[in-house]
Amino acid sequence: MKGKKVLITGGTGLIGKRLTQLLLEKDYQVAYLSRKKTSIPSVQVFEWNVDKGYIEDGALENTDYLIHLAGAGVADERWTEERKKLIISSRTETAKLIHKKLTEKHIRPAAFVSSSGSSYYGEDTGDIRNTESSPPNSDFLSQVTVVWEKAANDMAALGIRTVKLRTGIVLSNEGGAIPRMAAPAKLGFGAPLGSGKQWVSWIHIDDLCRMYIEAMENESWEGAYNAVAAQPVTNEELTKQICITLGKPQWLPNVPAFGLKLAFGEMASVVLGSSYLINERIAKETNFQYYYEELDKALVEILL
To answer: What family does the Swiss-Prot or TrEMBL record give for this protein (predicted)?
Structure first.
């Protein structure tokens, strides 16, 4: 007999796919909220339409845990005003609709675990060491994350234990930053971006997904956590380690910041910004054990 039911938004994304695999291995029932009624092996898919305020009957019923990963990709397209609105609404309006339906149906899952971003503290915080008690910033991505978390906090107001995972750069071979950085490195064209001195707070995707499960299962987890490994690295160090892992030289000069700004516009802050997060609450308040605490081991698992 299958175990407890986990309902996931954004389940077909990079994190959702791997998280689903781990949940199924632990014998959970996994269900998705999806804009399209598709067939996914071992997953029950329920349709929803945020614009119409619709969630298919049966989706929320008997749900033990809710994991909120939905959100338009921050680095997928240039930040036009329309794109900015979508980045915000895809995170907040989805949560608001779930909140509304949970309230109407008097359904209270044991936990609501929401994705959040390291950009809560700002797109570029230089050498500042940010813990969970550090204040938010006022730039675009920070404000996205603030309203994203506010939508999650509304779940807590219903009496549902709520966890927010402020996630750094996710290391995976299936998507995200690493395949993009490894592609030129494989051809011998690896180069740091901008000054190369900007900090990168990272986490291996398996550690992140295990963190979601721990946050879901462990009743002591509540509030915001910096979901990153213990040792941030500079962009230059990350590029160098990718080249070392692949056995390729790094001989090109840094890609200049002005070139990246021309290519990506305002979105260039995603790769040029510096973000040094300390996983203070994970380290001091939990018993969570990382599989990949060191960058070289994480990259070997991903790239080789």
So the answer is: Belongs to the NAD(P)-dependent epimerase/dehydratase family. SDR39U1 subfamily.
Domain ranges of the chain: 5-236+263-303
CA dist., res. 123 & res. 5, Å (int): 36
CA-CA-CA-CA torsion sign (87, 44, 12, 18): positive
In degrees to the nearest 10, what's the CA dihedral of 224, 230, 231, 235? -30
Tens digit of each residue's pLDDT (9 = 90 or more) over 118-133: 999 999 999 999 999 9
The rounded distance, in Å, linking the Cα atoms of 169 and 16 is 15
Q: Give the whole-angstrom CA distance, residue 179 versus residue 17.
A: 17
Among residues 110, 87, 93, 90, which one has the least CA distance to residue 7?
A: 110
CA dihedral 136, 12, 82, 201 (to 10 degrees): 30
pTM for the full predicted model: 0.95
Q: For residue range 183-223, what is the model confidence (pLDDT) as tens digits? A: 989 988 888 989 999 999 999 999 999 999 999 999 999 99
- Cβ-contact 295, 147 below 8 angstroms: no
Angle of helix 14-25 versus helix 205-217 axis, rounded to 10:
60
Query: What number of residues does the chain have?
Result: 304
Residues 6+ apart with CB under 8 A from 66: 6, 7, 8, 9, 98, 109, 111, 112, 113, 155, 160
Q: Say how many C-beta atoms besides its own lie within 10 A of residue 111's C-beta.
A: 21
CATH number of this structure's domain 5-236+263-303:
3.40.50.720
